C-alpha cells in the first residue's frame, strides 16, 4: 500500500472543497427519482405511470447531457452549472406543486427537468486533470468512483426517508432546495480551464470526438457495464422475492456497493504498475460477475459473492474515467463525459428490460451470466486502449494522437 497519492491529493489546494461540493451537488440528483416516482404513483394510482414518468426523466437527461457538457467546454463550466442548477430547481418546484388532477402533465415536466439536470459529474471528471497530476490524478478518479458508490446508497435513501416521514411532494421540494444551494456552491469551486494554443483550442465536432479508436471503445464499454449493473439490480430484487425475503434486496445492494467502496479505496492507495492496462480491470469485473452465477443457491453465498464482485467495480470505473480523460483534449473533456453519461442512461434502460426477459425466460442466475458476457465484450473492446504509463516512461504525449 502506498498512501502517497492520497497525501498529495489532499494537500493540493482546492481539492477538498471541490470534492465535497461535488458530492453535495450530486446528492439531489440521486435523491429525486424516488419521491418523483411515488408522486406519480399516488396521483395516478399506477406504478406503470410512475415508470413512464421515470422514463421521461431519463430521456431528458440522455438527450441534454452532452449538450450542456459541450456548452461547459466552450463557455465555461461555472455559468452552465449556475444556469442549469437554478433552472432544474425551478422545474422540480413545478413538479412538486403540480395539482394531482393534472398528473398527465408529469411526463412533460419530468422530461424538461431531466433535460435541465446540471452536468455535475461531467464537469468534475473534466476538472481533475486541471487540479492534480501524476499519481494523485489516479487517486482522484478512484476517490470519485468510490464516493459515487456512497452516494448511490445515501441519495435514494434520503429521498425514500422524505417520502416515508412526510410526503412525495416534500421529497421533491427538498431536492429542489438542495440543488439550488449545493450546485451554486459547486459552481463557484470550478477551476480555471487550462491554457491552450490556437490549434489545440479548436473545438471538436461530436463525430470527431466520438468516432475515435480509443474514446469510442471506452464509452461503449462503460455503457455495457451500466447495462450489466442495472440488470443485476433487477436480479437482486427477483432473487429476494423468490426467497420470500424482500428486505434482503436492500441488504444485497448495500453489500455490493460497500464492496465497491472498499475496492475503490484500496485501489487509490495502491502504487500501481509501471504500465496499467484497463482491460485487466475489466476482466476482473467479468470474473466477479461469473462468480455470482455459481452463488445463487442461498442468500449467504450470494451476499459473499456480491461483496467480492463489488471489489472490482470502483477500481475499473475509476481507471476508465482516468483513461477517457487522458485521451481527450481539455477543450472537449466535459463533453466526452457527457456522452459517457448518455451511454450509461441507454445501457441502464436496455439492461433492465433485457434482465426482466431473462429472469422470466431462464431464471435469476442467468442475469449474472449475461452480465459476465457483457463484461467480457467490454474487455475485448478495451484491449487496444493504451495503458496508463508512468510519466518518466512516457516518450510522448497521448493527446497529440487524439486531435
Give a structural overview:
By secondary structure, the protein is an all-alpha fold. It is built from 17 helices and 2 strands. It has a two-stranded antiparallel ribbon. α5 runs antiparallel to α6 (106-115) and α11 (215-242) packs antiparallel against α12.
Briefly summarize what is shown:
The protein is mainly alpha-helical and 403 residues long.
Features:
disordered C terminus, 75% helix, 403 residues, 1% strand, two-stranded antiparallel ribbon, single chain, mainly alpha
- Strand order across the largest sheet: 1-2
The biggest sheet, with number of strands, parallel, antiparallel or mixed sense and barrel status, is: 2 strands, antiparallel
Mean pLDDT, rounded to whole units?
82
- The arrangement of helices and strands along the chain is HHHHHHHHHHHHEHHHHHE
Strand content: under 5%
Given the structure, what is the number of helices?
17
First-residue to last-residue Cα separation: 36 Å
